[in-house]
Amino acid sequence: MTLVKIGGNVINNKKALSSFLHDFSELKGLKILVHGGGKKASELSNKLGLESTMIGGRRVTDQATLEIVTMVYAGLLNKNIVAELQSLACNAIGLSGADGNLIKSHKRIVQEIDYGFAGDIDAVNTETLAIFLEKKLTPVLCAITHDNKGQLLNTNADTIASEVAKALSELYQVELIYCFEKNGVLLDVNDENSVIEDIDHRQYEKLKQEGAIADGMLPKLENCFSSLQHGVMKVRIGKPELIADKGIKHSILSL
Amino acid sequence: MTLVKIGGNVINNKKALSSFLHDFSELKGLKILVHGGGKKASELSNKLGLESTMIGGRRVTDQATLEIVTMVYAGLLNKNIVAELQSLACNAIGLSGADGNLIKSHKRIVQEIDYGFAGDIDAVNTETLAIFLEKKLTPVLCAITHDNKGQLLNTNADTIASEVAKALSELYQVELIYCFEKNGVLLDVNDENSVIEDIDHRQYEKLKQEGAIADGMLPKLENCFSSLQHGVMKVRIGKPELIADKGIKHSILSL
User: Fold this and answer.
1) Do A66 and A59 contact (CB within 8 A), yes or no?
2) What is the C-alpha to C-alpha distance for residues B174 and B168, in angstroms, rounded to an integer?
């Protein structure tokens, strides 16, 4: 099974998204797509005169923001991605974590920062995901989950990808691919050619201690290594093109 | 199987919606919920400075409006309904017609009026709906479909309810219940006590010719009788409370 996560940089660009979805539709075997949010939620907030507050790269989700991300992630983005995949003969089904109780989370406990309606994942419903996969449906998961008490929660898409990959590795051999705007883990963040093509956990710890890994990459890589430690077979990270182009440089992570 | 359609009047009122969802969650057997839009789409349009154009009770859907209804119907309303049903131990799954290619439609052909991105239904995918139903999932369908060429389309929720009920009557004994703001088909639109409790097709035609049925009711009743003519076992129409309260007055339609 292949689980691919795409972020805002692909979603913000209609042509890049179409190209990616074409490649994704041609992937053989069972697959899942997890998508992030993109600029559209902030754009809509701005148009409505609301302010987006980000702390440490994470959105603070008040009630009005929760409504906006639910509309944009679960509605606009998810359904347009599904419709485009359907046109490419990929039998996509767009889902939030509330649908079929796929991803149960809890509202993040307030410590120093109150992230509002942000969800931290408790459980992934592999049984229901497996029903879809076995019926040749391709789940397209947006970054909205629920607490099973009626509350929707805004949830980090990288973490959703990692937790779903881990949970499904009990049933399948799972490969997890994180697509983002860079060629992979870079030794020099300004040099796209400085990709570390193979990086194991020991090297990662060393680079982290040396401060060689950019801040934004740390949580992403923590998710990657956590996935490998919990049964995921393979984790790759790089530009969206890597899912089709065997030649393009990217990083392969291992324990 | 019971298919219930709720409209804007229930959705606009948080308390009425909660009460309805509670009753719906307690319905025995296989079930599907189809929901309309409510005022939220128009409210969001207004806030964004767009104008909603309605012709004959149907929204004209330009590109900006399509984005709004996709956000509101498939995102905000659908996911909040699903989360609330999940909290009531009803294993709901929120879906548009694009998901799993459930409802294929085509952009309405322009005759006198150009309705824009409005969908007329071509096909309902009973095979995939049956997979969900047999796995004890309860589909919650919003009023967005697709043309299988990548285009989402705004589609009348009454018609979705009727077409899905008809299609599933090949596999199940289907009861269709239309919930709206009145007690049923009224002889006098201003008198809630003038409910015609049993109405057959001959009576309907007679009342229609006499002009005794209000304009807004005509398409709804056409959908009802069309459903009965195409295999649906039973059609009832009335206030949302009718699904739980056996005593409340409503109309039962027959051929």
Assistant:
1) no
2) 7
Taking CB atoms and an 8 Å cutoff, what residues of chain B touch A83?
98, 146, 150-152
Residue recorded with tokens 């703001």: B181
CA-CA distance, A129 to A160, in Å (whole number)?
Answer: 13
Pick the more confident residue, A147 or B42: A147
CA distance readout (Å), B116 to A192, B53, B63, B75: 45, 11, 8, 21
Walk me through the domains of chain B, giving residue ranges and CATH numbers. Answer: 2-254 (3.40.1160.10)
Indicate the residue of A84, A92, A99 with minimum beta-carbon distance to B82.
A99
Reported as a single tens digit per residue, the pLDDT across A150-203 is 999 999 999 999 999 999 999 999 999 999 999 999 988 888 899 999 999 999
| Dist. CA A173–CA A4, nearest whole Å | 14
Whether the complex's predicted ipTM is more than 0.90 is answered with yes
Extract the tokens encoding B41. Answer: 């789409």
**Strand B152-154 versus strand B198-200 pairing type:** unpaired
Residue with tokens 């509670």: B22
pLDDT tens track for A219-234: 889 989 999 999 999 9
In whole numbers, what is the pLDDT of chain B averaged over residues? 94
Is there a contact between A99 and B101 if contact means CB atoms under 8 Å apart?
A: no
Nearest by CB: B99 against A82, A87, A146? A82
CA B148/CA B129 separation, integer angstroms? 17
Average pLDDT for residues A67-90, to the nearest whole number? Answer: 98
pLDDT, one tens digit per residue, over B180-193 is 999 999 988 888 89
Q: A250 vs chain B: nearest CA distance in angstroms?
A: 30
Selected residue of B86, B146, B153 to mutate for chain A interface (largest A Cβ count, 10 A): B86
Instruction: Report whether A231 contacts A169 (CB < 8 A).
Output: yes
pLDDT in tens, B85-113: 999 999 999 999 999 999 999 999 998 88
CA distance B97 to chain A (A): 9
Provide the pLDDT for residue B13.
93
pLDDT digits (tens, 9 = 90+) for A98-138: 999 999 999 999 988 899 999 999 999 999 999 999 999 99
Would you call B135 an interface residue with chain A, using a CB distance cutoff of 8 Å? yes
Nearest 5°: phi and psi at B123?
A: -155, 140
Residue in A closest to B79 by C-alpha:
A98
Q: How many CB pairs under 8 A join A and B?
A: 119
When scoring B68, B81, B82, B145 by the number of chain A Cβ atoms within 10 A, the one with the most, hence best to mutate, is B82
Nearest CA in chain B to A79: B98
CA dist list (Å): B84 to A67, B91, B181: 15, 10, 22
Length of chain B: 255
> Cβ separation of B80 and A91 shorter than 8 Å?
no
pLDDT score, position B57: 67
Do residue B75 and residue A73 have CB atoms under 8 angstroms apart? yes
